[in-house]
């Protein structure tokens, strides 16, 4: 996906031959990137001629007064910089005051939705502002949206970031824009985040956490995946989650089931088994998950438990299979968490599951880098669904199930 916006030329670097561009933010020019690609030789010569006539030079940099406006195409907007900008055209009829920061934000796909208070601080520990959160969503949108598709959404909103209280929201508010899709279940009109406009509208309202059910509105009440939630007593006990995931991977491989792994963004790990749509009931899935959970406890009874009451777990990791049921939810892949580090519920490759893995490594900044580098451990997730089968596993489990 490509974006376009208008900018004013601010500098020309005589060393690297790049033009710097900026946007107007409350009357002040904010530099947001450099470009050289896209211009013809004639356009480049003409621009250089104009720049050199109307500027001053300082330390191999020609400083340009606001006034020369251009349209650029770019891949994304990250850390207050446009990525991979390419020249499109001169904007001779446009003033530099029209090349605003607001239009830049709007043009990254928000469809008339402006970002309010972009500099609002959200996470004090690492100086994350609202615009940083929106930038993260911009980069993650193509990865997170397939998991939100056609699912009744529950969000946790943080109107004041970590500086104030948070609250759960299920009901779609009356003021929601027309592009927000909804679906009724019982007496709640849930939001369904089927498009990027809804994603950014929620982001603008500081919905950090996106929690989704295991079924879609099209799956006739049947699960679209099985998820094991491996929940250690604390982040300091993350090694237990690593151990549990390693054992679970071996078990699932032995059953010829393809699995995917995700850091929860908090203190645990979640292991996914995508399922073919409308094939298995929650009851069948429960027989499978309960059997696997109990089997894992026989392997490491001192480390793992299925005890629901925390006081009775005695510092053991909780293998949560009870939560996998209709209407229950789990944090969506690539969702930010509302904790002190703004950590991300990040998919990883199984090869990354080493004993020195830390959940604190998955911040908005580090996950953004993973996304920019094209890393997508869940790339084959949906294509895998039709390859999965429990038809040989379930009869064996049912015959031995008590």
Task: Summarize the structure in words.
This protein has 402 residues and is an alpha+beta fold. It folds into three domains: 3-106, Nucleic acid-binding proteins (OB fold (Dihydrolipoamide Acetyltransferase, E2P)), CATH 2.40.50; 121-213, no CATH class; 225-400, Alpha-Beta Complex (DNA primase, PRIM domain). Helices cover 26% and strands 28% of the residues. It has nine helices and 24 strands. It has helices at 41-53, 101-106, 130-148, 196-204, 238-254, 282-299, 364-372, 381-384, 393-400, and strands at residues 3-13, 19-25, 28-35, 55-58, 61-64, 69-74, 76-78, 81-83, 86-90, 121-123, 128-129, 154-157, 159-162, 167-169, 181-185, 188-192, 207-213, 225-231, 260-263, 269-274, 304-305, 317-320, 329-331, 347-348. The strands form six sheets. Strands 1, 2, 3, 4, 5, 6 and 9 form a seven-stranded antiparallel beta sheet that branches. The protein has a six-stranded mixed beta sheet with strand order 21-22-18-20-19-24. It has a four-stranded antiparallel beta sheet with strand order 14-12-17-23. The longest helix has 19 residues, at 130-148. The radius of gyration is 25 Å and the shape is elongated. The model has no long low-confidence stretch (mean pLDDT 92).
């Amino acid at each position: 996906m490509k974006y376009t916006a208008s900018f004013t030329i601010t500098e020309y670097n005589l060393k690297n031959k790049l033009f710097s561009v900026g946007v107007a933010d409350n009357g002040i020019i904010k530099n947001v990137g450099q470009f050289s690609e896209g211009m013809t030789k004639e356009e480049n010569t003409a621009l250089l001629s104009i720049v050199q006539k109307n500027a001053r030079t300082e330390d191999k940099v020609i400083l340009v007064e606001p006034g020369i406006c251009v349209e650029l195409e770019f891949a994304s907007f990250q850390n207050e910089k446009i990525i991979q900008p390419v020249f499109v055209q001169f904007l001779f009829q446009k003033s530099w005051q029209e090349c605003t920061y607001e239009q830049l934000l709007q043009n990254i796909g928000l469809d008339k939705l402006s970002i309010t208070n972009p500099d609002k601080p959200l996470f004090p520990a690492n100086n994350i502002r609202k615009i940083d959160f929106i930038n993260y969503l911009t980069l993650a949108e193509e990865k997170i949206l397939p998991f939100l598709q056609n699912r009744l959404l529950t969000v946790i909103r943080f109107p004041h970031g970590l500086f104030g209280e948070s609250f759960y929201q299920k009901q779609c508010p009356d003021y929601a824009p027309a592009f927000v899709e909804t679906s009724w279940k019982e007496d709640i009109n849930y939001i369904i985040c089927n498009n990027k406009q809804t994603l950014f509208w929620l982001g603008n309202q500081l919905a950090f956490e996106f929690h989704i059910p295991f079924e879609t509105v099209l799956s006739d009440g049947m699960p679209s995946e099985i998820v094991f939630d491996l929940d250690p007593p604390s982040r300091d006990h993350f090694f237990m989650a690593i151990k549990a995931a390693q054992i679970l991977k071996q078990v699932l491989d032995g059953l010829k089931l393809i699995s995917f792994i995700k850091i929860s963004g908090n203190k645990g790990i979640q292991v996914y088994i995508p399922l073919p749509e409308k094939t298995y009931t929650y009851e069948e899935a429960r027989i499978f998950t309960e059997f696997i959970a109990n089997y894992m406890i026989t392997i490491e009874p001192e480390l793992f438990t299925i005890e629901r009451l925390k006081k009775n777990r005695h510092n053991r990791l909780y293998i949560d299979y009870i939560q996998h049921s209709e209407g229950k939810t789990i944090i969506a892949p690539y969702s930010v968490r509302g904790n002190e580090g703004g950590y991300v519920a990040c998919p990883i490759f199984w090869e990354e599951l080493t004993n020195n893995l830390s959940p604190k490594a998955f911040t908005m900044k580090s996950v953004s880098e993973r996304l920019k580098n094209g890393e997508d451990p869940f790339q084959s997730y949906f294509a895998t669904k039709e390859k999965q089968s429990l038809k040989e596993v379930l009869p064996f489990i049912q015959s031995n199930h008590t």
